[in-house]
Amino acid sequence: MQNEKEIMEIIANGGDARSSSLKAIRCARNGQWEEVDVLLKRAGESLSKAHKVQTQLIQSEIRGEKSEISLLMIHAQDHLMNAITLKELAIELIEEVKKRFKFEESMKGMLEND
C-alpha cells in the first residue's frame, strides 16, 4: 500500500492526542491542573505531528504525485479530525470545570464565615 507509514503516523498521533485530551478532562475533574496542562500540551504536540504528515501528503498530491485513496487513509483523516475536535472541546470543558472549582471554593469560604 502506498503511503502506509505516513497514514499510520496520522492514526497513531491522532490517537495519542485523543487519549491525552480525554485524560486532561478526567484530571480537571479531580483538580489536577498541572497534569491538565501537561496533557493538553502533549495533545497539541501530537496533533502537530499528525498535521505535518497530512500536509506533506497534500503537498505531494499538489505536485502531481497521486496517492491511493484507501479505507485506511479515510480512517486516518477521520481519526485526525475527531482528535482535533475533541481537543477543542476538552479545552472548553476544562474551562467550565475550573469555573466550577472556583465557585465551590468561594461557597466554602462564605459558609465558613457564617
Report on this model:
This protein has helices spanning 4-29, 33-62, 71-113. By secondary structure, the chain is an all-alpha fold. α1 (4-29) runs antiparallel to α2, α1 (4-29) runs parallel beside α3 (71-113) and α2 runs antiparallel to α3. The longest helix has 43 residues, at 71-113. The termini are far apart.
Give the key terms:
114 residues; mainly alpha; rod-shaped
Approximate shape: rod-shaped
Stretches where pLDDT is under 50 for at least 5 consecutive residues are none
Q: Helical amount among residues, as a percent range?
A: over 70%
Report the structural category.
mainly alpha
User: What share of the residues does DSSP label as strand, in percent?
Assistant: under 5%
Give the termini separation.
Answer: 70 Å
State the major sheet.
Answer: none
- Tally of DSSP helical segments: 3
Average pLDDT level:
93
Radius of gyration: 19 Å
The ordered H/E elements are HHH
Number of strands: 0
What is this structure's SSE topology?
Elements: H1 4-29, H2 33-62, H3 71-113
In short:
With 114 residues, the protein is mainly α. The protein is built from 3 helices and no strands. The chain has helices at residues 4-29, 33-62, 71-113.
